[in-house]
């Protein structure tokens, strides 16, 4: 139930891995405004927007470990209205964050008995942005393909078994607390997994009988109308099957998430080029008016204690990663190359820096690199392992991972800027 494939890739940059693991652990397992089961369900909702089975399956397991109601895993219709009301900002943040307004925030905070507190909403927003961005990394580095092929994808695991990857990585400064937690989990994970398998198998068996006829009828109805829509369905990676999300396969292995569509509404809503927005939509977001350093950090840290420091450390860590060889291949200084990637990603979300010459982007980033970055950032579910292997042949594997880390953090900060600005406007 851990992010082993992800940490194996991030392990090429152990200092960043340490910062990422601390943030991930704090968001999911430390004291905070949201109940633990709700945190994992929100993560499921976020990952489902990009059809990221790797993250959905991970959080389905952790949701049950946290004592979550198995019925919730049947889809949004089976969860409390308070959680279901998050669907709109989940959808917008994942694909067109510039559409977030103070009205979205007000609606969530003022719905009588199902209202959110500001602290809860900030926690939820950080979780959504974290999981959307992590889905980009999962697809960008091929972790989703490896998961789907049972670990036989193009990116081979670097460690085996239950060992925490950061323990096997030279030079990693992983904190003692994280090491202790991972060692404890490695000792009891076998018993927990056996218990989960039995529980999930029991759930499946209990519901299989009464759901069988309904599912067959749904499949038949959907099958009749599928012929003309095959291309569209393939593009959105949708799965017409239905039923309980987690189940045990014939080998007894926990799989899960047979139908990711049950965790989202309006599946056709996706990224749209910011430059093609309607005139009455949100104007360009200028960092000089609202920035992470001057505005977002203080707000998020005040409403969700200490998370601002962890996020800030992560943003600074990815900016400080060494990229001299990567920049040299592009014929520029490391800081110039990294800023070009970062600003290009923010530009796709309508975020502009007045002090930056955007003509540099076309000079620094070759066309194929830009295509890759845009795909991983805006519609990561369309990324495949061949794209990772074929693009940037002059880059080392660790350098490709570095670029994916830049995508992860730039995307997350972009979502947070829009959401926190909307919260600030609501408060004012």
TrEMBL record:
Superkingdom, taxonomy of origin: Eukaryota
Molecular function as annotated in GO: L-leucine binding; oxidoreductase activity, acting on peroxide as acceptor
Subcellular location: Cytoplasm
SUPFAM superfamilies: AhpD-like (SSF69118)
Keyword Cytoplasm: yes
BP term (GO), one: cellular response to leucine starvation
Keywords, alphabetical: Cytoplasm, Oxidoreductase
Record's GO cellular component terms: cytoplasm; nucleus
Matching InterPro entries: AhpD-like, Sestrin
Presence of the UniProt keyword Ribonucleoprotein in the record: no
Catalytic activity field: a hydroperoxide + L-cysteinyl-[protein] = S-hydroxy-L-cysteinyl-[protein] + an alcohol
Family matches, as PANTHER family: P53 REGULATED PA26 NUCLEAR PROTEIN SESTRIN, SESTRIN 3
Family note: Belongs to the sestrin family.
Identification of the protein by name: SESN3 protein
Source organism per UniProt: Dryoscopus gambensis
